[in-house]
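Here we describe the complex-level prediction in full. Unlike the single-chain runs in Section 2.1, the two entities below were treated as one system.
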Amino acid sequence: MNLENVLPGDIEKRSMEIIQEELGEIILDETKASIIKRVIHTSADFDYVRTLHFSPDAIDKALAALKNGATIITDTNMAKAGVNKIGLAKLGAKVECFMLDADVAATAKEKGCTRAAVCMEKACEVEGPVIIAVGNAPTALVRLNELIAEGKIKPELVIGVPVGFVNVVESKEIIMSSGVPYIVARGRKGGSNVAAAICNALIYKLAR
Amino acid sequence: MNLENVLPGDIEKRSMEIIQEELGEIILDETKASIIKRVIHTSADFDYVRTLHFSPDAIDKALAALKNGATIITDTNMAKAGVNKIGLAKLGAKVECFMLDADVAATAKEKGCTRAAVCMEKACEVEGPVIIAVGNAPTALVRLNELIAEGKIKPELVIGVPVGFVNVVESKEIIMSSGVPYIVARGRKGGSNVAAAICNALIYKLAR
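The structure predicted for the assembly as a whole is:
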């Protein structure tokens, strides 16, 4: 078995070169390219070239928010674990996940809804600009859309990339029509890794 | 947009039903089915039906190890975050990741190798049965194969599902011929989410 001889610090660069080669004749929008390629890098799945959709203001709004000390709120601790803390610290931004909070579990049980939906309610209390990154629970996006409509939260960006089979496709279409800036992976695919990769691609545009 | 009305506690069950429906005429091996379906559930990617490969002893060895208080060692904190802690606690098993340890970073810099490779060296010092779950770094699998050949570690199971473009395919083939029990996603695809899903599918066979 022949291994390609690549120094540790060059593995990502070499990966990105391979991705670029395999994109062939596809020309990506310049501002979106680093985000789309990082998602392919994290998934080895070129479907995202087709499925990632950006509202026109998404990247500008997200970068402005990160520069203003935004809080990224994820719907899983996996996604939180995957967001680059060094980059966040350089920007004075942070990442939070409320999924394991005792009050979230209690409220979810009481209301008969998912903990992820309750996390979106808790996100309304966060001060300063917020970026919502949903990589798992479509119920989070559905509840978030209601909270946006009620004027209770106005995220600078919604990263809508839950994965799965029940209401996942629909939840993404719903959030795309909510009027807030979004980056969405249409269809069933996505995940905590994809959510974290999009956060990191945005962070790396400012701090790396 | 019509949402399917599914209670929070039934979302996973409904997802598994949809996956089973969409498998159509494919009949999965009974002992492997829950693992393969959980990986599809976490990725929405049916490619894993083809790409997941199991050594004949993999599941039996893994379940015995988990019952004997195994330590699962992951190559990312994302994978660690995704492993079900309640299930692990019921079994008296645990999960560790050494990627952020200061000594790992120092050794990697000194040796000019990846931190993930050094984590495998550190895994040799863990007492009791170990399950190695690699969802990110092919360099971890390559180093692990060397350590196995040198008799420095004998994992009860290697979950080999790194994702990416540089030496990923090759590292999986290498670990499949190392002589230890394995569950591998052949090809480029995998990830921390897939690694965690396989760990959880194994845990849920014993404790849920």
